[in-house]
Hints:
Elements: H1 2-8, H2 15-52, H3 58-106, H4 119-131, H5 139-158, H6 164-176, E1 181-184, E2 187-190, H7 192-207
Antiparallel strand pairs: 1-2
Helix pairs in contact: 2-3, 2-7, 3-4, 3-5, 3-7, 5-7
Amino acid sequence: NYDTVMVAGKKLISYAVFAELKYFTDFSDLINQIVEKKERYLNGEYERLKKESLPEEMEALEDHFGDLDFEKIKIENLLYKSFLISIFSFIEANINGLCSYIREEKKCVFRHSDLRGNGIVRSVKYLDKVLGVKFPLDKNNRDNIEIARIIRNAIIHNDGIIPEEHLSKIEKYKIDNPNEIDLLLGAITLKKPFILKITKLTEAIIEE
C-alpha cells in the first residue's frame, strides 16, 4: 500500500538529497546579497549626487536613477528566474527518481516515461495511477507546484510571457499573493518571497 511503499522510499530522501537542496538555499542567499549590495550602492550614489546637484539638475538625476533602478529590477528578476529553473529541475529529478523506485518496489510493468505528457505532470500522473494518491499530498503544495511549473515553462519557452491559457490562473495567484510576483501584459516578474516559498515547497515535497 501507499504507506509501506513510501516509508521504504525514504531511502531516496537521503542526506545527499538534503545536502544538495542546501545549495539552493545558498544560491538564494547569494542572490539576496547581490541585490542588497546593488541597492546600497545605488542609494549611496543617489544621496551623494543629490547633495552635489543644483536644483535644476534634480529632474535629470531622478530620471537617471529611475533607469538604474529599473536595470536593478531586471537583473534581480533574471537571477530569480535562473533560480526557479534550477530548483524546479531538482524537484522533477527527485520525483522521477521516486517513480522509478516505486516501479521497482511494486514490480510495475510500465514506467512513468511510458505515459503521455512530459516533466512533472507525467510523473505525478504515474504516482496517481500506481499508488492511487494525488502527489504532493497537501493540496496547497500541489497548487503551488502547478503555479511554479507554469511560470518555469513560460520562462524557458516564451521569455517569461505567460501563455493565454494560463494567464487567468497566474493573475489570480498575483491577486492572492501580491508580494510574490508582478505581471504586466503577461510578462512575469519574480520577487524574493516567491523564491522563499518555492524553496520551502521543495523541502516539503522531499519530506513527503
